Amino acid sequence: KLLTGGVEREIDSWPSAMGNFCRSRTSVSLLAVENTSIGPAHTKESLASSCSGGTRDFGSRRKGSLASGAPFPKRPLRCKLSSQVWKRLEELFQKMDPDGSNAVTREEARMFFKGAFGKLSADAMFDEVDMDNSGAITAEEFVQFWIQVRKSGYKDQELIDELDELLDGAAWVDWKESKQAPKAIGFPRRPMLCRLSAPCWQKCEELFRILDCDGTMVINREKAEKHFVGAFAKVSVDAMFNELDPNNHGQINAKEWMKFWLQVRSSGYKEKDMMEELENLKEGSTWVDWKDGRSTE
After folding, report:
1. Contact (CB, 8 A) for 208 and 257
2. What angle (nearest 5°) sits at the alpha carbon of residue 196, between those of residues 190 and 201?
3. What are the tens digits of pLDDT across the range 187-198?
4. Cβ distance 62 to 248 under 8 Å?
5. Residue 181 three-state SS
6. Mean pLDDT across the chain
7. How far lies 36's CA from each of 5, 24, 292, in Å?
8. Which residues touch 60 (CB under 8 Å, ≥6 apart)?
9. Of 103, 42, 68, nearest to 287 (Cα)?
10. For residue range 114-163, what is the model confidence (pLDDT) as tens digits?
11. Which of 83, 89, 175, 279 would suit a FRET pair with 33, their CA atoms being 20 to 30 Å apart?
12. Which residues pair with 105 in a beta bridge?
């Protein structure tokens, strides 16, 4: 029997009922009852007992997750790119995205480019097109790059010829699109009238820089796994990426990082609680699931 909403109900299968009735307390498989009102306060239950049989493991659920993005956009009116170029762009993007997830990962790009320089071509493309350093190229990023190439003076026919070669697996070329070299990406500044105080913002930045051990301003899984300590390091990494990388791009940049902590603050958590948890995380403590009003399913 299971008590829900003050009503005692008969259940035939306890494990299946628990699967519907419970969700992970954290992404490291800590339990919380789904329909129970949960306030901002949170505690760290024992991972050893919480990760025992019957709970769902976000780590294993995400193992087959795909990078994702919005569908390929329609060509706008008065677009600098002709319909012939646009059609080839969509065809090329779809060939690079064999799983149809609307995002091209570096691994997919390396599989697409042929020959001895396949890896170099993939890396060169990402250096030019993956402007937010997310680890995946969305259709919007792909289109915007080619619009910029067109604006820089290349003719439609030149683009068509090069796209046809790329469709056949030719090497990526370095487009001299006359755009300014991107400025070094720094940590975002705290805006005026921000819900996070300056000390809390600084502590968020400190934790980000600890996780970003090589200073490239992105956190990937390898870096995170080096930071979290203990037997549950990997599940902590999976939990963090489950919340901060919803599109499964494999990397978390500084903008996404601060957007997440602003959402946590807006959901009702007190700064004192956040500061304490951030300090714990700096020491490699286990990641907790913040009830910030977003679904991590």
Report:
1. yes
2. 55
3. 888 887 888 888
4. yes
5. coil
6. 74
7. 9, 13, 15
8. none
9. 42
10. 766 788 888 888 888 888 788 889 989 899 999 988 888 888 888 888 89
11. 279
12. 136
The answer to whether 90 and 142 are in contact (CB under 8 A) is no
The helix or strand, by DSSP H or E, that contains position 201, with its residue range, turns out to be helix 198-211
Token pair listed for 204: 């968020």
- The Cα–Cα gap between 72 and 89 comes to 10
Amino acid letter for position 151: K
In this prediction, residue 90 carries a pLDDT of 93
Count of residues making up the chain: 297
Type of residue at 20:
N
**How many other C-beta atoms can be found within 10 angstroms of the C-beta atom of residue 227?**
20
Task: Report the 10 Å Cβ neighbour count for 237.
Answer: 25
Q: What is the Cα–Cα distance from 234 to 28, expressed in whole angstroms? A: 9
| Pairing between β-strand 7-9 and β-strand 2-4 as defined by DSSP bridges | antiparallel
C-alpha span between 159 and 99 (Å, rounded): 26
pLDDT at 218: 86
Whether the Cβ atoms of residue 228 and residue 287 lie closer than 8 Å to each other: yes
